[in-house]
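Let us practice reading a record.
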Amino acid sequence: MNTSVGNTARLIGAGLRALLVLTVLCGVLYPLAVTGVAQALFPDQANGSELHGEDGRVVGSSLIGQSYNLPKKDPADADEAARPDLRWFQPRPSDGLGANSVNTRYSLILSGATNRSADNGAVDGRCTARAERGTLCAQVTGAKEAVVADNSTSSYQVAPEDVPADAVTSSGSGLDPHISPAYAELQVHRVAERNRLDVRQVEKVVAEHTAGRTLGFMGEPRVNVLELNTALAALTTS
């Protein structure tokens, strides 16, 4: 009996010692080492790829998209549809972009794709205005009409066929911070008019914030919307 109790005590002691050692190694020393290396070699990435405005305030992360909407007419109305603030370049459509405590325009509400097929709601194999409400075709058709209406100005008319796919569809995560150069260019005239800027000034800002393919062959050319709008804000206040 005593031998059994002694063996049990030794096993418990060995287990507690192993727990203590592994806790120190994996819960203290390893995280400190990784954090130290990350802060020393990649401080920007380690801190969330934060972007700062002209006043030094954090305006978001370059890795996650954010919305640019007007304040609600009735803050208590949860069902009120968001209205885009057309002074700014708009991101891809998404239900995952909103507000948080650091920046009231920026948050992670949800992440994920619709998982609907490309012909969801199609009529005779095509997405038309007759598509059933709530289907992907209805969303895309409505989004395209809104893009055409929002970005057409007195001197520039957007043609429906010029609306790129990323202007009317969300990304797989719903949190893509980028838009295509084509969608950015489509918004230039509207942004210039709303901010009383010359079109060439806005085109220059877009060109300066257009990134090419990674390593020259991976992915597609892209424009980070948050970086673009941060530069636009600096331009309008200068």
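A brief commentary: Strands lie at 50-52, 58-61, 178-179, 210-211, 222-224.
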